[in-house]
Amino acid sequence: MKKLFLALAAFSAIVSCSSDDNNSKKEEVSPIVGTWNQYKADVYTTSDNKTKAVYPSGCESENTFEYNKTEVNTVGHSLNKDGACVPSDYHNAKYTYDQNAKKLWYNNSNRVYKVNKLTSTELVTEDNTEDRDGDGMNDVVIRYFRRVK
Fold first, then answer.
1. Can you say how many angstroms the Cα of residue 113 is from the centroid of all Cα atoms in its chain?
2. Which candidate, 65, 42, 38, places its Cα nearest to that of 141?
3. Which among 144, 117, 115, 141 has a CA at the least distance from the CA of 127?
4. Could you tell me the CA-to-CA distances from 40 to 8, 53, 61, 103 in Å, in that order?
5. Partner residues linked to 94 by β-bridges
6. CB atoms within 10 A of CB 91
7. φ and ψ at residue 111, rounded to 5 degrees
């Protein structure tokens, strides 16, 4: 048994040290690639300087954001005639994620999202791209996502 293990270890070392004749490099996959579900948002409104936690409820809590290498597919859910949540609203957009700058934007728009945290299980973005309280100033929204696939 000991000899078999040593033979396998030696073979593994030889194979892992061999050169790749094609000089092809394994393409690195961005950590944002996967399917995400937003479970919370913190909205900081400038009119009253307060932060409000917002939690998706009902069918909205099942919405997903599916990132592949170049596109994001959003899937919205709503109630069907039987009262079950079903996929009902689909959107597709190109996106760019700059891992070094920790910035995310869609379709080359001016809406830039700061990526505060990105792990294998959690994504947290921050932006101030819309006026949520109607005071004429954009408010800060921090969105929390968990990876579902």
1. 11
2. 42
3. 141
4. 49, 7, 9, 20
5. 71
6. 11
7. -80, 105
**Rounded Cα distance, 130 and 138, in Å:** 5
Mean pLDDT, the chain, whole residue set: 84
Which of these, 42, 43, 41, lies nearest to 134 by C-alpha position? 43
The tens-digit pLDDT sequence of the chain (149 residues) is 333 333 333 333 333 444 444 545 566 778 999 999 999 999 999 999 999 999 999 999 999 999 999 999 999 999 999 999 999 999 999 999 999 999 999 987 888 999 999 999 999 999 998 999 999 999 999 999 999 99
Q: How far apart are CA 37 and CA 81, in angstroms?
A: 24
φ, ψ for residue 22, nearest 5 deg? -85, -5
Amino acid in position 43: V
- pTM as predicted: 0.77
Is residue 139 within 8 A of residue 131, CB to CB? The reply is yes
Instruction: Give the long-range contacts of residues 81-90, CB within 8 A, separation 24 or more.
Output: 85/58, 85/59
What does DSSP assign to residue 84?
-
